[in-house]
Queue: 2 jobs
Job 1
Amino acid sequence: MTNASPEALLALSNVNTFYGQAQVHFDLSISVARGHIVCLLGGNASGKSTTMKIILGLVKPRSGEVTFDGASLVGLTTPQIVRRGIASVPEARRLFAEMSVRENILMGAFVRNDREAIAQDLDRMLTLFPKLGQRLSQRAGSLSGGEQQMVAMARALMSRPRMIVMDEPTMGLSPLYVDRVLELIRTINQEGVSVFMVEQNASLALEIAHEAYVLQTGKIVLSGPARALKDDPRVRDAYLGGSEAA
Amino acid sequence: MSSWLDYTINGLIVGNVYALVAVGLALIFGVSRLINFAQGSIYLVGAYIGWVAVVQLHTPLPLTIIVVAAAAALVGLIIERFGLRPLQNSVRIAPLLATIGISFVLDQLVMLTFSPNPRALPSQLPDVRFQVGGGTIGPLDLLIAGVGITSALLLFVFLRYSKLGWAVRAASQDRDAAMQMGVDVNRVNQAVFGIAAALGGVSGMLVGMYYNQIDTAMSLQATLKGVVAEVVGGAGNVPGAVVGSLLLGLVESYGVAVFGTSYRNLFAFLLLVVVLVLRPNGLFASARQAPPEPLTGTFIAPSRPVRIPRWALAVAAAIFAILPLFPVSFYVLQTLINAWLLGMLALSLTLVAGTIGQVSLGHAALLAIGAYTSALLSLTFAVPVGLAIIGGGLMSAALGTTLISPSFRLRGHYVSIATLAIGEIVSLVILNWESVTRGPIGISGIPPLSLFGYDLISPTSIYWFSLSVMVVLALLQGRLLTSHLGRSFRAIRDDDIAARAYGLSLNRYKSLAFIFGGFAAGISGGIAAHLYSYINHETFNTQQSILALTVVILGGLGNVVGAILGSVALVGLPEMFRIAAEYRILIYGIVLLLLVRFRPQGLLGTI
């Protein structure tokens, strides 16, 4: 299991999480190096989304440590964690459906107070996501799934985060948009933002990730550089819980 | 007032006042998915603070408005901080019950401080009226309209252009996502409660000035009207709440014009029920289905019920049965008779609210139906009292279930609102249907209890009679809970979608629960009618509904033994400690708050 290295931006070590009596995580340890894309793979009910919630402070671990840039996140509220520099692209986007696209994107800058820089960043988002330009005054709920994903990513970037956590960014998107989203994640990463993403779609995620972890019923069963895992038959096995062909 | 224009102006002015209450409710519902039943109490507090300011401190009008808004906002902040925030991770029903408890406590505190007698609240405005077209309008009308419009504008600017306003809107659309943007939801809640309370308080003061009278009964009426307006406009929809309020004001005003004053509230509640049934999302929502509320499933606190061995129950029953053989005072028996009657109502409510999860706030209506039926059967048709009481139970079962059936498709809070409204409708129909119910005069000379020709007049015989009826009902209900029917009820409570997927017909099982519950409550009402010998439309009121709910929560929702224990405790203990009547409701409110906070599963646990 990978131990938290000194240059790790985010590190979970020996995290145990429970929902009532049921244990979700068993001594979970994950680290995200500065400037890397790290991907957490796993099937349904493996505890992927709960890992996201632990990082964001939406669920509290029973034991274990979560650090960001060397400081502990345990005991902080979600807004406090966001202010430390973590932004999120939640599962199923979770846009503010009744607010306009512009308002949604600007909500991402909620923790900032520098008006002029925020306006500049909005313009920057429109160059990064040119399609959103025509949609700015539209209700966010009226956009297609792919467009909503763009808004969610723009919203996350608006806080100028050091790291973005994404919960299944390609879920429910048309193949065209899946490629577009992966491309954007790579672009975002190249601008210096670390990325931690949870994915079901292993082959796609391993295309862009630097490292990956495979989670199975709350335990890390496999981890390492993405390039090495891409051809590892154990990924497929761990995933499908057997030897079926994908 | 004579012209239609006058009625229109009156409707819009009253609608404006409702809007100040309803907008606050909508803001709170938006952010917390909570119907704040304490909103009317803040309105009441606002009216009395206004009275203190105007009558005792002689403040000028603008200052009065500011004082009232600030003081009411402070009350709102206190409610949020100490009443509701500790319940954030509690079961969904907890905040709802807490606001009911808070409203009882606030109303009683106002009543104890200022006495229940009405007081005059002068508006300090010149008493002139201007001719406008065919109607007239006075300075106070203009003030109310001005306050309404100003508040709406301020609120719009706040929500649209301030950072906190954005946070409120974001949190009301997706609380978790808002937190992930860095929004502190506690601050949003504070803001919303402060604003809602300030608006509610000012509204109470304006109404006091409009009628130049304030009294403590204003509270519940304001909550009800605000809830009606809010639901008509679409729960959580702020502009909708304004439109719903104006519509409600107009409907009432025209209704009064055509049918008379005593019909005013009837129109409000009929409007509510019609909207709830046809468009539960409000008039302006596109969907015709209620939203997938997160109010089912964990609505009731899960727990392991306290197991009481059968022999212990038998011993307890035997002790109570032989109690009159010992030299106990008439007073003790009288108290216990009240407890047994309340126990039957609690059995009914614990089945409906606990076992099948339909938290009814209008249960006293079932008592009223049973009482009136039994009284009228015995008086008008000379039916023997024993049979008449059974008739009351049957009528309550049939009529109660029929009345409630349109709301079977609702869930969670909406069920509570609908039952509250239906309860009020029953009471208003009793008030207005004079040819049958004798209207406001009530029914007097109801024959005393009798069984097989023998009058039950001595306290001992009444005691035995009510105790045995209650025990029989409790045994039946106990059987019901262990049967497959009981399991189906609980399945519907825990997850109605899953229950439906397993082929359970929700309507059928909800009907069955209300039929059984209606029967038990109707019997209780019937016995009460013959015991009191006089009843009117106010004998069985919302306070009793809430008392029954407190009993049921004290005992543990769904818990048969708990319902009886809760009745004995809440009727008996205040008597034992000789607590004056005016403090009792205060105590019920406090008990409810403490339970919700520290033991939401009740004394004996939910089943």
Note: Chain A touches chain B at residues 56, 58, 77-79, 82-83, 87-88, 90, 94-99, 103, 106-108, 110-111, 155, 159 (CB under 8 Å).
Job 2
Amino acid sequence: MRGNHVVAEAAIRAGCRFYFGYPITPQNETPEYMAAALSKLKDGVFIQAESELAAINMVIGGSMAGVRVMTSSSSPGISLKQEGISYLAALELPAVIVNMCRGGPGLGNIAPAQSDYFQATRGGGHGDYRNIVLAPSSCQELAELTMEAFDLADIYRIPVIILADGMLGQMMEPVEFPDHKNPKKLSPKDWALTGAKGRPGRVIRSLILDPVLEEEHNWKLMRKYERIQKKEVRYETFLLGDAKMAVVAFGTAARIAKGAVQKVREQGLKVGLLRPISLWPFPEKVLVELGKRVKLFFVFEMNMGQMVEDVRIALGRDGDIHFYGRPGGVVPTPLEISRIISSHYLRKRL
Amino acid sequence: MKKVFSRPRSLRKVPFHYCPGCGHSIIHRLVAEVIDEMGLREITIGVPPAGCAVLAYFYFDFDMGESPHGRGTALATGLKRALPDRLVFTYQGDGDIAAIGTAETIHTANRGENITALFINNACYGMTGGQMAPTTLLGQNTTTSPGGREGLRDGYPIRLSEMLALTDGSAYIERTAVNSPVNIRKTKKAIAKGFKVQMDGLGFSLIEIVSPCPTNWRMSSHEACQWIEKEIIQYYPLGVIKDVTKRGQGC
């Protein structure tokens, strides 16, 4: 099954019946699948909005009403959604937003890239906030993380970003889906706008004119983010047990890096891989622990160096951290990466 | 003693903060009265804008969800699609609905979304201090059209309601004003009609309400009401623009 279809099917299985989007390559198969699948469901709603701005605001409306709701797009379209994502964060509304990232900046191209790491993990829109960001590296993981994203969004009342790329969206792999969730059996949302039946009117708002109260709201969000940082870190390790050098990569880049690690292992080099799955919260503590026994780090990304900053923050001055990036939608081969890994490794005489 | 006049159930016991002579207080009351009279309070969800009326949620006692500037009708679309049997309305100023939110408004109308937009036209940006709005009249002085609005330099006052009437999805569009007791009564009837059209599932309804802004117009309340009569209504004629419940009317 194609990655973009996997996302859509997983959303429906998670109990999402509301999809609002606007076409953009390389993710069009997601809205197309949603249009077909939701029209067959009695409670399904699909709207092709007039813009990404409209789509994300329809998401806000659906989320206010208490339903599971999703939108998907790719880099330039995600930029347009940032205003709405900031509001989702401020209003503490759950939503799932999929970014099948492409080469940029500007219109860029439609090839796979990881250039939206900063945008996704730092909030992206105006104001002081974070999103949960999940980075799958296979179609199977696209299915699992998409379903999980809806649960996390509801638990923490936060927008959750699935940050993948054109490669994952377009590739086809066998997938085993978790079972369907019945949207009617999801836990009720006692904060949603449903009409003030037998109660005073409820308000969902983000305008807080008193700076002291706005500060309080910011700290409240911060405490939530700290809970998430404690509980929701996700990562995968590969051959790190005896490793003298650690490669750090996420998503498609991690998949390429895994192949590269296998190649250099064949040459007898003790190299392992750390793959952050949650990009925010970033597996900082895992890196700190790893840094106690591994002294050489190599970060590979399909951008000019974004996640590497989080690696540097985690390891501080002690880390010997090297970076290799291929921006613009270029996808290097495992062989290319393995050569760079082994040259760093051999130069250090590990 | 028999009580003949009281605060509507749908209004909270909170004094309005609006400027003296502003139309919002009147319109808020009309909306609350209509919702009470139609028995809709418990199924109503309102969407306030960015603008003076963002604080509407402090006054209305029913569910309210704040919208980013201009996106009210898109947000209301999401609400209404999720809860199709509720009354969903947006409350938007002219800058909100006819400048930054034009695309959302036109496409919401064109989809025939079963919502009602209350479009408050005061010919300027009120909250930000009286800048030129898309509805500002030619020759009208504002802080960003000093010396008066010029069509070929600043653009012409836009007739959004007439534009929306051209979409096949719009069901009921009327322009009213709140500058006189007669017009206030007509406005109340128009709001009730818009809500009824929505509850009957006929499609998009919009009531444009010309409303005084004495503070930013630099006028007394009385002058502002007269200025609406003499100037605004000449460019923006009052009346029903489209009504699908009556054959042969509208465009």
Note: The interface with chain B takes residues 18, 20, 45, 47, 49-51, 53-55, 57-67, 69, 83-84, 87, 91, 193-198, 200-207 of chain A (CB under 8 Å).
